[in-house]
Design goal:
The protein has a domain at about 15-70: Pemi-like Protein 1, Chain: D (Ribbon), CATH 2.10.260. Helix content is about 35%, strand content about 15%. The protein is built from 3 helices and 2 strands. β1 and β2 (about 40-45) form a beta hairpin.
Length: about 90
């Protein structure tokens, strides 16, 4: 595995080297996900809004083809806070 040492700036900022940004699709103005572990931090490229929308559209289309159409009240017992605390990778 390749590793590169970078300096931490005054406000705790680090620059992700270009080779890693390009390899993981991290763009200026984009987002990353930081996951704390016992061994250190994991930085993952975040999905863009367009990518998330495309994933949701594909999922909706698959469910429609399978005859699994949602109905009002289906998510009454669904906890969005728990859902968003999970890893979305």
């Amino acid at each position: 595995m390749v590793s590169i040492r970078v300096k931490v700036g005054l406000k705790g900022q680090v620059v992700i080297p270009k080779v890693f940004r390009e390899a993981y699709g991290i763009k200026e103005g984009g987002e990353v996900i930081i996951i704390p572990t016992e061994e250190g931090l994991i930085i993952k490229g975040g999905r863009s809004t367009e990518e998330i929308m495309n994933i949701l559209k594909e999922h909706r289309e698959r469910r429609r083809r399978q005859g699994l159409v949602g109905r009002l009240g289906d998510l009454a017992d669904f906890d969005l806070e728990d859902e968003f605390n999970e890893d979305i990778s």
